[in-house]
Amino acid sequence: MNDSRITALYCRISREDELIQESSSIETQKAYLSRYANSNKFYNIRYYVDDGYSGSNFDRPGFMELKKDIENQLISIVITKDLSRLGRDYLTTGYYIEHYFPLNGVRYIAINDQVDTDKNDNDFAPFRNIMNEWYARDISKKIRSAYKTKALNGEFTGPYPSYGYNKDLRDKHKLVINKKQAEVIKLIFRLYLEGKTVYKISNILKSKKVLTPRAELHKKYEVYVSENVKKYPYEWATQSILSVLRNEVYLGHIICNRHQTSSFKSKKLKINPKSEWIISKNMHEPIIDEHTFEQVQLLMKNKKKTHSVSHENIFKGKIKCNECGKTLALSIRPDRGYHKVLPVVHIEDTQQDVQVTILLMSILLNMF
User: Fold this and answer.
1) Which residue ranges form the domains of the chain, and what is each CATH number?
2) Dist. CA 121–CA 192, nearest whole Å
3) Do the Cβ atoms of 113 and 41 come closer than 8 Å?
4) Cα 257 to chain center, whole Å?
5) pLDDT of 216 strictly over 50
6) What is the per-residue pLDDT for 1?
7) How far is residue 113 from each of residues 17, 79, 80, 83, 118, measured CA to CA in Å?
8) How far apart are CA 47 and CA 75, in angstroms?
9) Which of 323, 290, 288, 330 is nearest to 309 (CA)?
C-alpha cells in the first residue's frame, strides 16, 4: 500500500434517513470511521461527505469529488460505515465494488457489512445491495404516501413557498404573506389588467429593481445558484410572470402533486395532469381576490396568439443570446410583412455575433 495516498472516509445521509432516524448522523459516521481507520493504521485520512443526498443515485457532490481524486490516483482506500452509505442502487453499487474500485487500484471496505475487496469473502455483498435497494424503494413509497396524506389535509409540503409567501415560523405546513413580495404580485395583476403585456411588465419590474423569484430564493436559501441569476437578478422571464398570473395559490389555495419524480432512483420531475393535482381551498390568506383572478384568466385566454407559420422554425431552441444565455425566439409580425427574431427577455448589450446571428436567421427564414 502506498502510505502517501489518501484513505477516503465516505459519509452519507439522506433526508429520508433523517426522517426515520435510520442511519447515523454525519458527525457520528465521521467519528466511527475515524476510530476504525486509526485502529487499523490507515493514515492520511480525508472525509468526503454528502449530507442530504439519496443513495439511489450517484450524482452527489461528495461522491463526485471522491471519484475525481480516485481517477487522479490520489486514493488508496475507501471506507464506509456500511454498503448502504455507498449507495442503494444494487446494480450501480455492485459496479463500483466489483469493477470501478479494483480497476483503479482502490481497496473498498464496508465495516458493518464485513466487505473488504482485498479479501475474497464478499459473496453476500450483492444480496445486501439488493436488500438496500428494496429498502430505498419501500422508504420512497412511505415518504410519498406521507406527503400525499399531508396534501389531502391541506398542508403545504413543498421545500420553498411560492413567491409572495413565507412558511409560518410556528407551523412549516402553513403559509403566511410576505408583505413586500405580495405588493409585487398585486402590481403584476394590476398592470396586466391595465393592458400591459408581460414583456412590458418585465421591463417595469426590472426598472424598479425587483428581484426575480429565483434571485429571492438564492438570496434567502442559497439555492438555484447560477451565473444568470447572479448577473441578471432583476430579469423577470415572461414565463415567470405568466406563472404568477395563473397561480391559484394567490387565492389562498394549497396546490400539491403538480409534479412527481419518475422513480425513486431519479430526481427528475415530470408534470402531472391537472386531474391529479390536490387542491385545498382557503388554507391561507389570499393576495388576489377571486374577481381579479378570474378577470386575468379571461383576458389571458382572449389574448392567446393564433399566428401560424407556413414553415417549420429550424432554429427553435438552438440559438441563444451570447450576452445573457437566454434562448432567442421567433416573433411573427404578419401585419408588417416580415419576420423578426428577438431575444425572449434580454435585449440590451447585444454582442456583434448575436446581431449577425439574428440577421442570418431573418434572411434564411424569408427565403422559405
Assistant:
1) 6-121 (3.40.50.1390), 165-302 (3.90.1750), 307-367 (no CATH)
2) 70
3) no
4) 16
5) yes
6) 44
7) 18, 11, 10, 7, 14
8) 12
9) 330
- 234 SS3 class: coil
Lowest mean pLDDT among 1-15, 225-239, 242-256, 330-344: 330-344
Radius of gyration of the chain (CA): 27
pLDDT per residue over 138-197, tens digit each?
Answer: 666 666 666 677 777 888 888 899 999 999 999 988 999 999 999 999 999 999 999 999
| Confidence band, pLDDT 50/70/90 cuts, at residue 226 | confident
Q: Give the integer Cα–Cα distance in Å for 354 and 364.
A: 15
Residues 6+ apart with CB under 8 A from 61: 50, 53
**Per-residue pLDDT, 182:** 96
Q: Assess contact for 224 and 214: CB atoms under 8 A.
A: yes
The CA distance from 182 to 188, in Å, is 10
DSSP 153: T
Residue type, 106: V
